[in-house]
Amino acid sequence: MNINIDSAKSYFNEMIEEVIKGNEYFILHHGKPIARITPVREDTLSRAEIIERLFSYQTLTGGESSYNH
Question: Vertex 61, ends 60 and 65: CA angle to 5°?
Fold first, then answer.
């Protein structure tokens, strides 16, 4: 859903209730998106977790990848 920045200020509590339900908002400034409010996904990994898994994988495989050029 798109909402301009002035309306977002006025309806912030309602927006948060909708985000809790799984909806997403794009905040617009002069008609252009400047921010997005989305629900937090429980399965999203942090950068640190991604790096840790990458290094663990490289250690297990000896640094080799299954990707063929």
Answer: 140
